[in-house]
Amino acid sequence: MRLYHGSNTAFKEIDLSLCRPNKDFGQGFYLALDRIAAERMAKRTVRRFGGKAYLMTFDFDEAALADVPVKRFPQPSEEWAMFVMANRRPQVAATDHNRDNRYGMVAGPVANDDLALLFRQFALGLVTVEMLVREMQFKQLTIQYSFHTPLAVSALRFAGVDDVY
Asked: What is the pTM of this model?
């Protein structure tokens, strides 16, 4: 399977120590199934931090994850929303999260900018998790894959880099 990573720098090797914490599925290396979504991320990163927009392509061998704990969310759900909140906000008490990299790889919908207001309202207690999930049904969501351990990252093979225009 082909996956894409948009960034403001080009690279071939994945360094998990450079990944930011408190992201949707925890601190890890994130890739998109959708090339256009990754290109948008590259442009957004350049707007925020400068640099030049690049798209890295990786081939993903799912069979290589046989010994890696994996978590999958095929669609938005209460479980997915609570998992994202627990990873984004370490102060949230949760039994299932990935703040400790218990899952080497996680795949599921992106809690993107279209959902930012909903997640803020949920965090403030203004909407219930049921309302959050119901509203997400009307959003166009893309799928992301995140890799959190060296063993999980070993399932990825660099396939190329392109400039994003």
From this structure: 0.88
**Closest-CA residue to 84 (of 114, 107, 53, 52):** 107
Q: How many other C-beta atoms can be found within 10 angstroms of the C-beta atom of residue 42?
A: 24
pLDDT greater than 80 at residue 136: no
| 55 and 3 Cβ atoms separated by less than 8 Å | no
Residue 157's beta-bridge partner residues? 59
* Maximum distance among all Cα pairs of the chain, rounded to whole angstroms: 44
Q: Percentage of residues in the chain with pLDDT exceeding 90?
A: 67
Pairing state of beta strands 54-60 and 156-163? antiparallel
- Ramachandran quadrant class, 139 (left: phi over 0; alpha: psi -120 to 50; beta: rest): beta
CB 42 within 8 A of CB 35: no
Q: How wide is the angle at C-alpha 66 spanned by C-alphas 63 and 70, nearest 5°?
A: 100
Q: Looking up tokens 């790889």, which residue turns up?
A: 105
**Token pair of 72, please?**
């999958």
Residues in contact with 47: Cβ distance below 8 Å, sequence separation at least 6, in sequence order: none
